[in-house]
């Protein structure tokens, strides 16, 4: 029983690529504020300058797809 240890199965490469892309996306969003609604300073002439939650989510999904594409590209 103690001799029987569970062997770790190797993770698929796609999962590792997605993990790297997710970490890259998180880094970009934290350092740049990407995907957050911006607070307008002063008078902008618009009633609502902030983005809706749906627009923010769509923006983050697009960023994740771009990060996945960047991670999959071969290094030259």
State the oligomer. Answer: single chain
State mean pLDDT (0 to 100 scale).
78
> Based on helices, strands and strand pairing, what is the structural class?
mainly alpha
Largest beta-sheet characterization: none
Low-confidence stretches: none
Give me the Rg, rounded.
20 Å
Question: What is the helix content?
Answer: 40-55%
Specify the overall morphology.
elongated
Succession of helices and strands: HH
Number of strands: 0
Task: Describe this structure as you would to a colleague.
This protein is mainly α and 76 residues long. The chain is 53% helix and 0% strand. It has helices spanning 13-32, 53-72. The radius of gyration is 20 Å and the shape is elongated.
């Amino acid at each position: 029983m103690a001799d029987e240890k569970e062997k770790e199965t190797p993770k698929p490469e796609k999962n590792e690529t997605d993990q790297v892309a997710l970490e890259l996306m998180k880094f970009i969003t934290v350092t740049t504020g990407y995907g957050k609604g911006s607070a307008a300073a002063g008078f902008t002439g618009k009633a609502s300058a902030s983005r809706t939650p749906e627009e923010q989510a769509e923006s983050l999904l697009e960023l994740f797809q771009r990060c996945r594409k960047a991670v999959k590209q071969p290094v030259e």
